[in-house]
Specification:
heterodimer, A: mainly alpha, 2 strands, 2% strand, B: 72% helix
Chain lengths: 368, 306
């Protein structure tokens, strides 16, 4: 490593409590976000990279972060992630569709709140039921979501096909947009959607980082490690669990709304099925329980692997040789193996690998 | 008498019998959870794997019993391999990581099963007739004019004999005794010289056998294809109601879920204004039971202390 933590003199409490205490960390992070993500990538990336790689990875990363808050930080197993994403997506659609003045960021925020309320409702049993028994509640949420949007076509505006297209120009992105040089066409293009997703993702990461390093997050972790002990030292277990469920499903709801509006461009309850819940759970395991960085590493890996295999196959054997079934089965086997191997070798996931390698680099030429 | 009664009974009996099918899946769960504290999510895929292997052989004109025994041996070997490669290195890890390992295993087996065989829909015919029985013709003494599926009864009988066999095995054999000791307390069992890893291997092998039988019955019912893995989702509320550690619990839970699912579909769906509520209704039933008894009907109450 080119810099190390030792020997830094902190002169004030504020400096001690900074999110990134090291100047170098701040510099690298700012450089990455401003120059790379907002600058180079926005400028150079192609339509394909935006809409097939970057946007879905960020959206799924947010969903993974949401699940990580419940499972990784608070220890409440949830299998209803896709269901809560579904609530968020439908809430966003109905808000935008039924209210003329609604615009995207506000709709996403409200969609998150609505999903969060559902999270509180389905999280209530957590106050009495513990451990594995709790998956009943989240699975009920998952199946309820799949059922309710099928049974009540009102939510889908009575579309006969069961899928609502969300074509551009049918919704406003920002208020007072006509006063800015960037028009609707820009915000509906893949580049514009990328910028929206990126901004929301960064805001959610910062919010999550701040929650987990404050008393909220410490309460979550105390409840995760041992809820009785947490209760003894004066933490309200009920409040903490419900808070965790609320925040977790808020993130999932926003992710669901982004999934529909920024990624696939239509609204379909079929895609928010149980398999997607499990996919998000894999992202959490592979990335690392209780890690923000890990959430995104996991999302990048689990989402990116099938794409990588297809591309490599095309490059080696010529285009279109590998059929989708092969790629799908292959990625299942690989992801399954990686999960098992990671759990045995490195239960902390990619995030722990990252930290280990950082530690190794720190002492590298002098020690192993 | 209430005029809807025969219909109600018909729905109830149908539900109870289909509940037995759920119990069949649930027993495999309970066995593994009881002995090793692992919540085996790969159950559904093991079911699929067994059924798919069997079907692929019979479709290639292999004799029924030959195919059955080969699959049986394969499932036993698979159970032992899983225990060796996945469960043993993870011994003494937290319950959550053990669960997630089985989710990983589930994914792995899913890819493997469909990669080795194929993902087409197969039929399996066990030679059990699917004709309905008119109860009033067979047993006029009961005076009930209801229809029961013959297949359901056969499945219930098979499940019942399996449960009986397992119970006898647990109660009257030396291995069964060790199994009960291990499920009671790992450490104490090891201290008196019970080989823990061998017991776990046996449990996984037995589960493999249960998966084969359940897989064939389910396969005959709903065809052998990817949807078979959904059996695990039917088994989940069952064991949670019954309590994760109790075989009688799995039976009772299965009956409750089966009956409540069918009755809910008939009598409650209209209130909710839509069909197909059974998926989440089963879980809501389980939730109601768990709110009253947080560790299921027969589950062990854990005393927690700091």
């Amino acid at each position: 490593m080119y810099y190390r933590e030792a020997g830094r003199l902190v002169k004030s409490f504020a400096a001690d409590r900074r999110m990134l205490p090291l100047m170098e960390d701040r510099f690298v992070t700012t450089l990455f976000v401003v120059v790379v993500m907002y600058g180079l990538v926005t400028w150079l990336a192609s339509d394909y990279i935006f809409s097939a790689i970057l946007i879905p990875m960020m959206v799924l990363g947010v969903a993974t972060l949401g699940l990580n808050i419940a499972t990784g930080y608070t220890g409440q197993l949830s299998l209803g992630t896709a269901g809560f994403m579904c609530f968020g997506a439908f809430a966003a659609f109905n808000l935008i569709f039924r209210l003329d003045w609604m615009y995207i960021p506000l709709a996403f925020f409200l969609a998150g709140l609505i999903a969060g309320l559902m999270g509180i409702i389905f999280g209530l049993p957590a106050l009495r039921i513990k451990g594995f028994y709790l998956i009943v509640s989240t699975l009920a949420a998952q199946f309820f979501a799949e059922w309710v949007f099928n049974a009540y076509p009102w939510f889908l505006n009575y579309t006969s096909s069961g899928v609502v297209n969300l074509p551009p120009f049918h919704y406003k992105v920002f208020p007072f947009q006509e006063l800015t040089p960037l028009n609707d066409a820009f915000w509906h293009s893949s580049r514009g959607r990328y910028l929206i997703t990126l901004t929301i993702t960064i805001a959610l990461i910062v919010a999550c980082k701040n929650m987990v390093r404050s008393s909220t997050g410490r309460n979550w972790m105390a409840v995760r490690d041992m809820d009785i002990a947490a209760n003894v030292i004066g933490i309200s277990v009920a409040k903490t669990k419900l808070m965790a469920f609320f925040v977790s499903t808020f993130y999932c709801g926003v992710a669901g709304a982004m999934y529909s509006y920024c990624y696939i461009g239509n609204l379909d309850f079929m895609i928010f099925n149980l398999r997607r819940s499990f996919l998000v759970m894999f992202m959490v395991i592979v990335g690392g329980l209780g890690s923000i960085l890990g959430s995104f590493l996991g999302a990048i890996f689990v989402y990116g692997w099938p794409i990588l295999v297809t591309r490599l196959g095309d490059a080696i054997f010529g285009g279109g040789t590998l059929d989708t079934a092969f790629v799908e089965n292959n990625s299942k086997i690989v992801v399954g193996t990686i999960i098992i191997v990671l759990l045995i070798r490195e239960p902390g996931g990619f995030a722990a690998l990252w930290n280990t390698s950082k530690q190794k680099l720190r002492v590298w030429p002098f020690s192993k | 008498m209430w005029e809807g009664l025969p219909f109600f009974l018909e729905v109830l009996v149908g539900g109870l019998l289909s509940g037995v099918m759920y119990s069949l899946v649930a027993i495999g769960f309970v066995l593994i959870y009881k002995s090793s504290g692992v919540f085996n999510f790969a159950q559904g895929t093991m079911l699929l794997f067994a059924a798919l292997t069997f079907v692929s052989m019979t479709e290639r004109q292999v004799n029924f019993w030959v195919a059955f025994s080969i699959t049986l041996v394969m499932m036993v070997i698979m159970g032992i391999i899983i225990e060796r490669t996945v469960m043993r290195p993870l011994a003494n890890q937290s319950l959550l990581s053990l669960f997630m390992a089985t989710v990983g295993l589930n994914y792995f087996l899913e890819g493997l099963a469909q990669g080795v065989w194929d993902s087409a829909v197969h039929g399996v015919d066990l030679g059990i007739s699917n004709d309905p029985i008119f109860l009033i013709e067979k047993f006029p003494i009961l005076g009930l004019d209801i229809i029961i599926s013959q297949f359901d009864i056969a499945a219930a009988l098979i499940a019942g004999s399996m449960i009986l066999g397992l119970t006898l095995f647990f109660q009257y054999t030396r291995t069964g005794l060790s199994l009960r000791a291990v499920s009671d307390d790992h450490m104490a069992a090891m201290a008196v010289g019970i080989p823990l890893s061998r017991i776990w291997a046996i449990v996984w092998a037995v589960t493999g056998v249960i998966c084969l039988i359940a897989g064939l019955l389910w396969g005959d019912r709903v065809s052998v294809s990817f949807t078979l893995t959904a059996a695990v989702l039917k088994g989940l509320p069952v064991i949670l109601i019954g309590g994760l550690t109790s075989i009688p619990g799995a039976i009772v839970g299965g009956l409750i879920i089966g009956a409540s699912e069918k009755l809910g579909e008939i009598y409650l769906a209209e209130i909710f204004g839509g069909q197909g509520i059974e998926h989440w209704w089963a879980y809501t039933t389980a939730l109601i039971f768990l709110m009253i008894r947080p560790t299921g009907i027969f589950g062990e109450k854990e005393i927690e202390r700091v």
